[in-house]
Amino acid sequence: MKSTSTTSAVRALAAAALLAIPALASAQSPQSNRALSQLTAQRSRLGLSEADLLNPAVTSQYTDAHNGVTHSYLRQRHQGVEIYGAVADVHVDRAGKLASLHSSFLPNVTEIARTAAPTLTAEQAVAAAARGLNMPAPRSLRVVKAGAAAEGIEFNDGGISLDNIQVKLMYLPLPDGSLRLVWDVTIAPLSAEHYWNARVDAANGALLDKTDYTISESFGISALTQPVAQMAAAARAQPATGTGSRPSVANSYNVWPLTIESPSHGNRAVVVNPANAVASPFGWHDTDGVAGAEFTITRGNNVHAYDDRSNRNVYTAGTSVSPDGGANLEFDFPFNAVQAALPISNLNAAVVNLFYWNNLIHDVMGLKGFNEASGNFQLKNYGTAGLANDAVRAEAQDGAALPVPNLNNANFSAPVDGTAPRMQMYLWEKSELTINVTAPATLAGPLTALESSLGRKLQATGPITANLVVVNDGSAKPERGCNVPLVNAAAVNGSIALIERGKCGFASKIKNAQDAGARMVIMMDSVPNTTTLIRMSGTAPDTVGLRIPSVFVTKADGERLKTAARGGQTVSISASGVVYYRDGDFDNGIIAHEYGHGISIRLTGGPGNSSCLGNAEQMGEGWSDFFGLWMTTKPGDVGTTGRGIGTYASSEPVTGRGIRPTRYSTDMSVNPATYGLVGTTGYTAVHSIGYVWASTLWDLNWALINRHGYNNDLTAATGGNNIALQLVLDGCKLQKCSPGFLDGRNAILKADTINNGAANSALIWQVFARRGMGANAVQGSSSSLTDNAAGFQLPTVLSTQKALNEKLVEVYPNPAQNQLTVRTQVSSSVPVKVELLTLLGRTVLTASASAARIQAEGIRLSTTELANGIYVVRLTTSEGTITKKVMVQH
């Protein structure tokens, strides 16, 4: 007889789940019982049957010491087989009460599941996955760790993977609502460009789904061919090995220390005994948990840093560079800051800096709760929680010695807990061009241009001097150069070809000019009234065989050249270029950003699931930017000062915007990002989406600093900066798998309730409402970028409170010069009246607008005609009046 008793159902459910992970059965059965009881209690609300909740797998579970919350992460199973993407997270406080719960368990699994027996074997599944991923067929595949199909089987690398290949039988939800039996296969290709987690049909081997555990930055700058001359010089050069003239200091590292973002932001310093005694109790060079270093090179329990210039993706003793600090562990290597210095000459210093920062982030984040239990990165876990054997493999100057080197990028691969991640740091190039029009005299002078990523570089070809010829392809717009052969091919031969953007791709245009004998191409924009230069790029097969250099100029400059050439004047041009390199291993913001991917991936959905941040609205890049900014905030910094990301690597001044749409700042005139941008043109890619999220977290950090102060000790629990980081990390743990922006907001609010008794709730709401994530914002599906809507309202309980104060109104810039913007998130049932008064109370400006408008974009006041001095902004709403002082300074 089937029992309908809730108590007996819970007991059966708990027992079955615990059997799924034997390690949890004895040590954490009370916590698992509570989690499963809470999930079962929500069965009706979730629309699930008893059968749907039967026998879930507990993928991970741990309790946070700082707040007593037990986090349980589960995956739905049918007939003992796990269902991919059907997960739940249950968070119970130290009193045993439910703090938070989310579930994507599927209803009616008994009806929608298809065949329960696979046709393909696990070994055949590996071969099928390799085919589907365009990888070579595995060779000499053998089982390393046997197990039941539904529990997982481990194969060797099969000659195609950097790590052993993991295979598990699972169900995959299909778009038609059914469940298909699949083999889940995890392969790390030898190129290290990807780390695939793929699902192939267990009946026919077809590739049905795949997830890439490698998060590649792809900053929008294509890899460029390294100049031949520099390649030859680099091949002959060797990294400097001597130390400086400083006195010997044991256990020391000459690096850009904590809070110093790069060589552009501050000086290098010798840091002594930096390992934290709690997070790294045996130091940074231990691997066995016994006093004394096992390694004197840049290798230890948390990270092994070494060079991978040849892109081998493995450390080879005697070949790979992993600097040796000797018995005293003194890591002091020269650094040549000269712009023209070859990167290899600074390789030892680069690897040491990479080692130091990976360890530093490990220790700081470990004290905030990214520890062994929650899935941090360690070769050996000194406690009993979590899985070991996953120290970071940090590869410096990755692929720099390849014929076509890896440039202008970085990546981080974060598989599940117990499997080692990989960080790859690249060189970044800067091309400096000298292009001059030498005739006619009326046009003579320098030409502003951006070198293409197509063909050869001007540094490689050497200086080019030739006459300019406008191409003619015989069409209605002959200067586009799309039709071949070119009508004026004879004239183009030996010349510099001028081509206009449009109709066909850049690579095709350049190839057509090259085939006609052109020595170089100047590509003019077709878009008027813009000064933005485009770095031309393309893909194979169009790019194959391109040998001549090419540059991009504005339409205005192109029109001047075109008019003169078509008018019969001889237009002569000389062009030359030089390429310099900067090493991402010295950009500590980028190192922290990459490591941050591992943090957000391991914390969201638990360390046993690395597939929770692949949805469209996920904020992975935003968390990583925030971690980079947070780790490099110095005492004395202020939130209104703009902070770029990657300014050192991209050869910009520290005041540059780097590789994001704007600098990060609490000043809306510097950084106007809001949730309303997400999904619009230019804001559909991961970095631009993440930029909006990071903008909000950065505001939150400074709002908490303004309330609680800044603590120089980044390992402490007090201070607004430390409180902010703790809330962000705990929010990652509390949010659902595949979160959207509002899910992330709610998780941070929940973390503040748990950690601080909701003491910062109003402030958090103000921060998020200001960036469009207020109480009336709509997220829609986190898998879509088209159903979200920004909202700037505070919750009713906050927006209608009578105790209004100046913190609820924002005026910027302050001081104002010619224009002042006034914003507030306070609600009003009548239009908001905005006045600007002198200190004597005389009204000099008046305006009004709806509350919705002032919440979303503010109201702008012209201060052009006002005298310098202090004024008072007064807002009158249905809920009360708010005043705030502002300075006008012309």
TrEMBL record:
Its main location: secreted. InterPro entries: FTP_domain, Fungal_virulence_M36, PA_dom_sf, PA_domain, Peptidase_M36, Peptidase_M4/M1_CTD_sf, Secre_tail. GO terms for cellular component: extracellular space. The keyword Protease applies. Residues 58-105 form the FTP domain. Belongs to the peptidase M36 family. This is T9SS type A sorting domain-containing protein. The lineage of its organism: Bacteria, Pseudomonadati, Bacteroidota, Cytophagia, Cytophagales.
